[in-house]
Specification:
Layout lengths: L2 E9 L3 E4 H7 L4 H7 L4 E4 L6 H10 L4 H6 E7 L10 H9 L6 E5 L5 H15 L4 E10 L12 E11 L4 E3 L4 E4 L5 E2 L8 E2 L1 H23 L8 E4 L4 H9 L7 H14 L1 H4 L8 H12 L8 E8 L3 E9 L9 H9 L2 E2 L2 H9 L9 E2 L9 E7 L2 E6 L5
Parallel strand pairs: 2-15, 4-5, 4-6, 12-13
Antiparallel strand pairs: 1-7, 1-8, 2-3, 6-7, 8-14, 9-14, 10-11, 13-14, 16-17, 17-18
Helix pairs in contact: 1-2, 3-5, 7-8, 9-11
Length: 392
């Protein structure tokens, strides 16, 4: 039985800052952002958007009534969750009007959470072939203004429906994975901003890739020649390239040219969104599927997932026949084209505008946010969400 990704959707907030302008404001050469780390734009989440609303907005456009009835498991991968007890997925479950006879949980392991969700979804569907699982990957990356990590911030979410006989990509059984207790990136519960040892984290990312890649080859006998493309978790778009280059010599010149060209295509969405943590790998996959128009059915795609702290995994998927008919290219193009650029001072003001932490009641202006699903305020220490399609 084939199990994999049946549908995939994406959402980013309607605001962004141009990385050239941010570089100038920080007295940095713009090329260090646009070429050095490979980022052009950075999505900015207004106060009316949080990981819950981003995930719900990514999913709302791809689900039909059959999905809503058959989804009996919602798995929310995030590292910027809003509650230490209640799963962010429970809010999304209500906002989307899903079948109440379902399990709903939240998973955490840095940027690896959504990959863990996918593997859990595969097991559930193997036991329940008629089920569908909604996997959500949603995050807002925050390092702080004028910090070394500021240029690798971002916001967005990817939603995937997992099923038997998937229309988009069937996931293969073999994978390789690795865990090691390293402090390359972390965010204590008392902080709304992450801490990172950038150089060490880059080294660990590459090391983990090399180790899981070599183990995968031993398990399967496959090599670079067997892959049309390899997609990477992308905290910034040059990161995956650094890892890929360490193994390219294992392939022919033709292999190298193919993988490098397709890697570039797989980074195009990430370049104009920024780092979305758990969703970054799957935004890279979406970029490849939607923008490489000559990607052939049956192509094998490699996927490298890395979550600091650290867990890494290399796994693979096979592109399914007629997959392009099930993409949502027009919707995602509209998401990007309808965004509004903000100035650096405006970005800083948005960044510094946060929700109260003392139980105060606050009402937010959701009419200025074009998203279908928004955070409308707080009352009695509870976040209040609105799906505008359900407003009377």
């Amino acid at each position: 039985m084939k199990i994999g990704i049946d549908k995939i959707g994406f959402y980013a907030p309607h605001l962004y800052v141009d990385m050239n302008n941010l570089a100038v404001a920080r007295n940095i050469e713009p090329e260090k952002f646009t070429i050095g780390i490979g980022q052009e734009k950075m999505a900015i989440a207004p106060i009316t958007q949080d990981p819950v609303t981003l995930a719900a907005n990514a999913a709302v456009e791809i689900l039909d009534e059959t999905d809503k009835e058959k989804i009996d498991f919602v798995i929310f991968g995030t590292e910027s969750g809003i509650d230490n007890s209640k799963s962010a997925g429970v809010y999304v479950h209500r906002l989307l009007g899903l079948n109440p006879r379902a399990r709903t949980i939240e998973l955490k392991q840095a940027c690896y959470g959504a990959t863990a969700a996918i593997q859990m979804a595969k097991g559930h569907i193997a036991l329940n072939p008629e089920s569908r699982v909604l996997v959500l990957a949603s995050d807002i990356a925050r390092y702080g203004l004028n910090t070394s990590g500021e240029s690798t911030q971002g916001a967005g979410a990817v939603a995937m429906v997992m099923s038997a006989d998937p229309k988009m990509m069937a996931l293969e059984d073999q994978s390789s994975y690795l865990t090691d207790d390293v402090m390359d990136f972390w965010r204590p519960v008392y902080s709304d901003k992450a801490f990172v040892d950038g150089k060490f984290s880059n080294e660990q990312y590459i090391l983990f890739f090399q180790k899981v890649w070599e183990e995968y080859k031993e398990k399967t006998g496959f090599g670079l020649a067997d892959f049309e493309a390899i997609c990477f978790h992308l905290p910034y778009t040059k990161m995956g390239m650094k890892a890929l280059r360490t193994v390219l010599e294992q392939g022919t010149e033709e292999d190298q040219e193919r993988l490098l060209a397709n890697y570039k295509i797989s980074t195009l969405y990430n370049r104009i969104v920024g780092n979305i943590y758990t969703g970054s790998l799957y935004l890279s996959l979406l970029s490849l599927l939607e923008l490489k128009e000559d990607l052939e059915d049956g192509s094998r795609i490699g996927l490298f997932s890395y979550g600091s702290g650290a867990v890494g995994e290399f796994f693979t998927g096979i592109v399914q026949p007629n997959y392009r008919a099930h993409l949502h290219v027009d919707r995602h193009t509209k998401v990007f084209e309808s965004r509004t650029e903000v100035t650096v001072p405006e970005y800083e003001a948005i960044f510094n505008k946060t929700l109260p932490v003392d139980g105060s009641t606050v009402e937010l202006d959701i009419d200025s946010d074009p998203a279908t699903i928004c955070l409308s305020g707080m009352k009695d220490n509870m976040r209040l969400y609105i799906n505008k399609m359900n407003r009377n």
